[in-house]
């Protein structure tokens, strides 16, 4: 049973030149790239993407960060793609939670600038794919 997930290679990872490394890890895992786009997120899209965090103290700086420069938005496909990518990413905090061998564990130091996003459930994936790739979500 194939699944789709929405992944962001965040502006810190793009600025540091990790796009190739991260896409390579995705491909080596066996996930298929169904859509891929380099863009600067609008405040509207970023705000909607992170709406569940609107009341958190870090929300304003999270929006500033995520709109601060180009990011790569992608849709990945594969069996258990949602869990598979979150395994590749590692836990939210790159030092406290993410293990070495994961993207965040290998390359991150800060909870906010943690290189990647991956949808956390089928419902989130559907919502996020519709938000970032409206043309794809109806297929
Ligand atoms: P996730 O990205 O691992 O699913 P969430 O809890 O959904 O983690 O948080 C969304 C994003 O918000 C994180 O990836 C990170 O960029 C940022 N974030 C989460 N917790 C903190 C924090 O304590 N301080 C600053 N930024 C945070």
From TrEMBL:
<keyword id="KW-0479">Metal-binding</keyword>
<protein>
    <recommendedName>
        <fullName>Nucleoside diphosphate kinase</fullName>
        <ecNumber>2.7.4.6</ecNumber>
    </recommendedName>
</protein>
<dbReference type="InterPro" id="IPR023005">
    <property type="entry name" value="Nucleoside_diP_kinase_AS"/>
</dbReference>
<dbReference type="GO" id="GO:0006241">
    <property type="term" value="P:CTP biosynthetic process"/>
</dbReference>
<feature type="binding site">
    <location>
        <position position="58"/>
    </location>
    <ligand>
        <name>ATP</name>
    </ligand>
</feature>
<keyword id="KW-0067">ATP-binding</keyword>
<dbReference type="InterPro" id="IPR036850">
    <property type="entry name" value="NDK-like_dom_sf"/>
</dbReference>
<keyword id="KW-0546">Nucleotide metabolism</keyword>
<feature type="active site" description="Pros-phosphohistidine intermediate">
    <location>
        <position position="117"/>
    </location>
</feature>
<feature type="binding site">
    <location>
        <position position="10"/>
    </location>
    <ligand>
        <name>ATP</name>
    </ligand>
</feature>
<comment type="subunit">
    <text>Homotetramer.</text>
</comment>
<feature type="domain" description="Nucleoside diphosphate kinase-like">
    <location>
        <begin position="2"/>
        <end position="138"/>
    </location>
</feature>
<keyword id="KW-0597">Phosphoprotein</keyword>
<dbReference type="GO" id="GO:0004550">
    <property type="term" value="F:nucleoside diphosphate kinase activity"/>
</dbReference>
<comment type="function">
    <text>Major role in the synthesis of nucleoside triphosphates other than ATP. The ATP gamma phosphate is transferred to the NDP beta phosphate via a ping-pong mechanism, using a phosphorylated active-site intermediate.</text>
</comment>
<dbReference type="GO" id="GO:0006183">
    <property type="term" value="P:GTP biosynthetic process"/>
</dbReference>
<comment type="similarity">
    <text>Belongs to the NDK family.</text>
</comment>
<feature type="binding site">
    <location>
        <position position="114"/>
    </location>
    <ligand>
        <name>ATP</name>
    </ligand>
</feature>
<feature type="binding site">
    <location>
        <position position="104"/>
    </location>
    <ligand>
        <name>ATP</name>
    </ligand>
</feature>
<keyword id="KW-0460">Magnesium</keyword>
<keyword id="KW-0963">Cytoplasm</keyword>
<dbReference type="GO" id="GO:0006228">
    <property type="term" value="P:UTP biosynthetic process"/>
</dbReference>
<dbReference type="InterPro" id="IPR034907">
    <property type="entry name" value="NDK-like_dom"/>
</dbReference>
<dbReference type="GO" id="GO:0005524">
    <property type="term" value="F:ATP binding"/>
</dbReference>
<feature type="binding site">
    <location>
        <position position="92"/>
    </location>
    <ligand>
        <name>ATP</name>
    </ligand>
</feature>
<keyword id="KW-0808">Transferase</keyword>
<keyword id="KW-0418">Kinase</keyword>
<comment type="subunit">
    <text>Homohexamer.</text>
</comment>
<dbReference type="Pfam" id="PF00334">
    <property type="entry name" value="NDK"/>
</dbReference>
<keyword id="KW-0547">Nucleotide-binding</keyword>
<dbReference type="GO" id="GO:0005737">
    <property type="term" value="C:cytoplasm"/>
</dbReference>
<dbReference type="GO" id="GO:0046872">
    <property type="term" value="F:metal ion binding"/>
</dbReference>
<dbReference type="InterPro" id="IPR001564">
    <property type="entry name" value="Nucleoside_diP_kinase"/>
</dbReference>
<feature type="binding site">
    <location>
        <position position="86"/>
    </location>
    <ligand>
        <name>ATP</name>
    </ligand>
</feature>
């Amino acid at each position: 049973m194939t699944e789709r997930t929405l992944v962001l290679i965040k502006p810190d990872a793009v600025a540091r030149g990790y796009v190739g490394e991260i896409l390579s890890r995705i491909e080596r895992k066996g996930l298929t790239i169904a859509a891929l786009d380099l863009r600067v997120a609008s405040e509207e899209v970023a705000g909607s993407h992170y709406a569940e965090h609107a009341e958190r103290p870090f929300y304003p700086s999270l929006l500033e960060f995520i709109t601060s420069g180009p990011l790569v938005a992608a849709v990945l496909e594969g069996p258990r793609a949602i869990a598979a990518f979150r395994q590749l990413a590692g836990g939210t905090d790159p030092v406290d939670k993410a293990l070495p061998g994961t993207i965040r564990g290998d390359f991150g130091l800060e909870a906010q600038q943690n290189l990647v996003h991956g949808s956390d459930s089928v419902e989130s994936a559907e919502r996020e794919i519709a938000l970032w790739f409206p043309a794809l979500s109806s297929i």
